Amino acid sequence: MSAVPGDTAHGPGRLIVAVYGVLALAATARSGVQIIRDLDQAPTAYLLSGVAAVVYLVATLALARGGVRWRPVAWAAIGTELVGVLSVGALSLTAPQLFADATVWSGFGQGYGYIPLVLSVVGLWWLARTRPREGVPDR
Amino acid sequence: MWTPLALAVVGLSLALAAWAGWRAVRDRPVILRQLLAGAVVEALIVVEVVVAAVLTANGSPPADVVTFWGYLVTALVVLPFAAAWAFAERTRWSSVVLVVAALTSGFLQYRLLQVFAG
């Protein structure tokens, strides 16, 4: 299906990269404004959103590049997202006093239509599906 | 001035999303006519940029200036990205990407309407 082993950017991958790009853009823009303008109001929440935004940018880039060199980066970034959205999601419900304002990952990504949760699962599934088969020469 | 302009972009974006969705379902890639429709939407967004700049220059800027321009610049780049991909990916997935881009464009206009009024 893919021309290059481990390719993640073509076919259905275009859609996944596109949605990652939109989420990365939205999270970066919003947390950027929050960090520059209102950091003292909710430092933990806004810095966490900033970290999440950077992870989404890395994931978008890694998926768009694909191939054997970028796939480990994509695994790490998307794995971080899943851990982040699950742990921060759970914490935001059980210990809401930790966060003075909502983060990208609060309520399992509620503020972003649960896309952060769904997308990390879809991203990991896509990486597993496009895994290069053994014996196929690397790029 | 702002509201009818934004509503026009919302309507055209949703129509483009539906058109691209129909082609995606039928396993067809994006075609040139869809890109021309996208160019019409893009032209309206450029008009929005001019209108917003003129309103700001005349002393009646949008309520939340930073957020407003953030959304407007995002709206400006979303459709060209989908168009670039339509050239590179000649499968149904270019249509699916156009659906996402057009829906994003419509959603951004909805947020712009909210942010403009404050």
Summarize the structure.
The complex is a heterodimer of chains A (139) and B (118). Chain A has 139 residues and is mostly helical.
Q: Determine the structural class of chain A based on helices, strands and strand pairing.
A: mainly alpha
Characterize the overall form of chain A.
elongated
Binned strand content of chain B: under 5%
Average residue-wise pLDDT of chain B = 93
- The oligomeric status of these chains comes to heterodimer
Name the helix and strand elements of chain A from N-terminus to C-terminus, one letter apiece. Answer: HHHH
Structural class of chain B: mainly alpha
Provide a count of the helices of chain A.
4
Helix content of chain B: over 70%
Give start-end ranges of low-pLDDT stretches of chain B. Answer: none
Report the major sheet of chain B.
none
DSSP helix count of chain B? 4
Whole-Å distance between the termini of chain B? Answer: 16 Å
Helix coverage percent of chain A: 55-70%
Distance between the termini of chain A: 16 Å
CA radius of gyration of chain B: 15 Å
Order of helices and strands of chain B: HHHH
Number of strands of chain B: 0
The gross shape of chain B turns out to be elongated
How large a portion of the residues of chain A is in β-strands, by DSSP E?
A: under 5%
**Biggest contact:** A-B, 16 and 17 residues
